[in-house]
Amino acid sequence: MPILKILITTIMPLTSVYLSILTTIMLIPLSTSGQKATEVLICYGKLQAEEISGYHTLILEPRHYFASAIRVFKKQNKEVYAYVSLGEVNVNAPHYAKLSSLTSGKNEQWESHYLNLEAPKTTQVLLELIDSIFATGYDGLFLDNIDNFNQYGPQKKQKEALIQLIQKIKSKYPNKKLIQNAGLALVPETSKYISSIAIESVASAYDFKSQQYQLSSDEQWETLSNDVIAVQKKFKKPIILIEYADSSTLVAQIKNRTNTLDCSLFVGSIDLQKLPTIHLN
């Protein structure tokens, strides 16, 4: 697999082809010692499948694509994952109408509603959604909002229901891969079902109120980076750091902070739905 060049939004003046796909964040390994270089592309906006090739891992919003597009993605790339939240549902999600009466509370930052996994109908709807996703040919799932179920999360009382749901998914689809996003405290119970872990905002911090990109505090960085090291050492799972930046200076600071961790690194804008407004050299 070719060694990556870092692409945060743009590196060289963009052609029209690149402009059509840059609702994305690019991923590179911080260290390739003993590892193969890898490429990951994440985009929750709609892409033209024919224009995306050469990636190891794609993470996509499944409502945009039919099976024909997934076949093209898979032909031109190695692994294709579908985004699924096990903790929340957005009002624009295709399954929102089925679950709206079973939600409890709202995540104001993302305009999404917390799911009740203890309600049989909720797990039924989610499993039906996952059935339809895998029927189109995806290789796995990117499971979001897992941190909602840790001891400080808004859905902490549903932790056991979450574990049972992940277990059901893996039992039904043993050959599919699951990427857990966040929720490090739950890894002791999820590790047997997941293939890798993603963690957001370890070195960086996005302020939703001021809409400012910045480094995380020294205290937060020390705590979270130590957590990452401990989880990786104990469970031997590949870890992806997802960081957010809007300037080349901040990107350099993030890289400098994380270069001692044996993890892969995302650096991009907080909004994956549209083209970046700032292109970095």
Overview features:
alpha/beta, 281 residues, 30% helix, disordered N terminus
Straight-line distance between termini: 25 Å
Roughly what fraction of the amino acids lie in strands? 15-25%
By DSSP, the count of extended strands is: 14
Rounded Rg: 18 Å
- What is the number of helices? 8
Mean pLDDT rating: 85
The helix/strand class is alpha/beta
Question: H/E order of the elements?
Answer: HEEEHEEHEEHEHEHEEEHEHE
* Major β-sheet strand ordering: 1-2-3-4-8-9-10-13-14
The description of the largest β-sheet is: 9 strands, mixed, barrel
What's the overall geometry? globular
Fraction in helix? 25-40%
> Which spans of ≥5 residues are poorly predicted at pLDDT below 50?
1-38, 275-281
Could you characterize the architecture of this molecule?
The chain has about 280 residues and is an alpha/beta fold. The protein is about 30% helix and about 20% strand. The protein has helices at about 15-20, 65-75, 95-100, 120-135, 160-170, 185-190, 220-235, 250-260, and strands at about 25-30, 40-45, 55-60, 80-85, 90, 105, 110-115, 140-145, 175-180, 195-200, 205, 210-215, 240-245, 265-270. It starts with 15 loop residues before the first helix and ends in a 13-residue tail after the last strand.
